[in-house]
Every structure is written in C-alpha cells, then in structure tokens.
C-alpha cells in the first residue's frame, strides 16, 4: 500500500491533519481524541498489507475498522454519556 493511501485513511480519523506523520519506514503517528497513536504499516512476504500495533499484527483494513474505528465508537459513547 502506498504512503498516500495510508495518509488518506488516517486523515479520516485524525484530530488534526497537520499532526499526521507517516515515515518512509512505515511508522505512523497521529492524534485522535487527544491521544497519540503510533503503529507500523508493512507488507508481508505474501504482499498483504498489515499493521503492527501494540505488539500485535493486524490486516490493514481490519485494523482501521476494528481498532481505530472501535476507538471512535467508544469515544462517541463516552461523550454521549457525559452529555446526559
């Protein structure tokens, strides 16, 4: 997966576009909900794009949907509960 596509995906979740950093090594750093997240995007020997986050490997799309997306849902739930 190319760096441009990864950047587009991460921008959808980031608090501030200016604070998204993607290094040529595949390391990604961004802030979401005021919390900094760092992970590494890589392509395995079979050509599948994966992410290493918190010591675990995920398929790239699963990571976005289940890990980063889940964080969004959790934050929204917390915000709704605080608002009540």
Give a short overview.
This protein is α+β, with helices and mostly antiparallel strands and 84 residues long. It has helices spanning 3-11, 60-83; strands at 21-22, 27-32, 35-43, 49-53, 56-59. β3 (35-43) and β4 (49-53) form a beta hairpin.
Architecture overview:
The protein is α+β, with helices and mostly antiparallel strands and 84 residues long. The protein has one domain (3-79): Metal Transport, Frataxin, Chain A (2-Layer Sandwich), CATH 3.30.920. Helices cover 39% and strands 31% of the residues. It has 2 helices and 5 strands; from the N terminus they run αβββββα. A 5-stranded antiparallel β-sheet has the order 1-2-3-4-5, with helices on one face. The model has no long low-confidence stretch (mean pLDDT 86).
Search tags:
84 residues; alpha+beta; Metal Transport, Frataxin, Chain A; five-stranded antiparallel β-sheet; 2 helices; 5 strands; 39% helix; globular
């Amino acid at each position: 997966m190319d760096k441009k596509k990864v950047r587009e995906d991460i921008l959808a979740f980031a608090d501030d576009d200016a604070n998204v950093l993607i290094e040529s090594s595949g390391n990604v750093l961004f802030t979401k909900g005021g919390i900094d997240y760092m992970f590494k995007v890589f392509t395995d020997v079979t050509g599948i794009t994966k992410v290493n986050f918190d010591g675990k490997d995920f398929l790239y799309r699963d990571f976005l949907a289940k890990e980063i997306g889940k964080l969004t849902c959790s934050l929204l739930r917390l915000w709704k509960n605080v608002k009540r």
